[in-house]
Specification:
Strand order of the largest sheet: 4-3-2-1-5-6-10-9
Strand content: 15-25%
Structural class: alpha/beta
Radius of gyration: 19 Å
Number of domains: 1
CATH class: Alpha Beta
Number of strands: 10
Shape: globular
Length: 296
Amino acid sequence: MADQLPDFDKGVEYWQSTTADVDGVLGGYGESSPVPRLDATSSRLLILSLLPQLSTITPPHLSSSPSASAPSPRPARPFRALDCGAGIGRVTSTVLLPLFDSVDLVEPVPSFVAQAKKNALQGREGWRALHEEGEKQKAVRIWKAGLQAFDPRRPLGAEREKVERFAQVGKTDFAWPDPERELRLEDEGYDLVMVQWCIGHLSDEQLVAFLQRSRAALRTAADGTCEGYIVVKENVCSDDAGDGAGRLFDEDDSSITRSDKAFREVFEKAGLTLLRREVQQGFPIELFPVVAYALR
């Protein structure tokens, strides 16, 4: 029924029963399908369009300009990302670590958190950046928590009993912000909060609150201008699904699939501005459409 709310514990129990690998977290669309590669490629391109300073390559539309013979230098500061509902760290490995200097992963499923730590320690694919030498080495922290309890601006704050700092891998002298105090947004705010294939396990009320906390944790300039972004990338049903409610409830994993209209209503309630909307291309036709929303 469209008015049913997600049961967080049932959702965790469902995902705990799946395999802790790409095939498991993507519901059978693992490495033998085009989904992981196409998803990662489109996400990286979207992020680079929002944060072009992450790129070391001159954009094609500027390559013929004499003044653009070399790419703009990357600012001499660490770029930070937050991977929400991170699973085994697939998005961190294939999308975020290739671009950012540090990543915080948040995930509530015990087997996924353990596998994410194992993947980070093994250092394959994008995780290799955690084992580089010198300035190329990057860093991750892994948090075991549900998003309804996690505050990106102060992880070990009011809900600290529901948040566990599970692991820290990579650059040992990386200057992580103290999780027991609020971020200094100009120096420590997130450049990107990435939310993908997870917020169906939050009610609208919980989702609005989490998006507001995420917005409050974005990097902010000295003059108060927000410089970071939130990207929500999720399955989307039709606006008339669920008897016109624009919401479909999945009994198996106790989650909601929202329509584009329902997402826009949530974003408006959270006080966010929709800056860009992109539909994922190339996925198998039997899947829900996947839409990425860039917000502030």
